[in-house]
Amino acid sequence: MEIRQHPFIRELISLGLPSIDYVVAGSGPLLAHGLRQDIGDLDIVARNDAWKIALSMGEATVPPSGHGLMVVLFGGHIEIFDRWLPGTQDADTLIGSAELIDGIPFCPLVDVLEWKRRSDRPKDREDVELIENYMGTV
Predict the structure, then answer these.
(1) Domains of the chain by range and CATH?
(2) Neighbours of 132 (CB within 10 A)
(3) Contact between residue 9 and residue 42 where contact means Cβ atoms under 8 Å apart
(4) Pairing of strands 104-106, 70-73
(5) Which residues contact 62 (CB under 8 A, 6 or more apart)?
(6) Rounded-to-integer distance, Cα 70 and Cα 50, Å
(7) Mind listing the pLDDT tens digit for each residue in 49-98?
(8) What stretches of 4-138 show up as alpha helix (H) in DSSP?
(9) pTM > 0.90: yes or no
(10) What gap in Å lies between CA 94 and CA 106, rounded to an integer?
């Protein structure tokens, strides 16, 4: 499936976020690289105008990590954060290192691999294996 046809990506695009002010994190990059077809949601790290747009569309709450703020849109399909997980790079660095895939900024898989290894949940272990196999680093 073309990435722009995925329902969550279509919802993301409909928000009109400026691509210089956000990055798709979490499992979204695995979707973009064709490593996973089914994901539970899209995690977005936003700053500046993208964050202002998110705030105009929903209420900011504290995420499960307790780190920063998040806005949940489209019934939970899109979660927009003002920062990523504790111990990770700041929003500016994450957004600055994004790779564009079909015009959408995604976190590089090497960064996703690092977070997933650190989180070490069963779902993350599966993703680590997928990324390592894809990158040839098993």
Answers:
(1) 3-108 (3.30.460.40)
(2) 15
(3) yes
(4) unpaired
(5) 68, 69, 70
(6) 12
(7) 999 999 999 999 999 988 999 999 999 999 999 999 888 889 999 999 99
(8) 7-14, 28-32, 48-57, 91-96, 109-119, 122-135
(9) yes
(10) 9
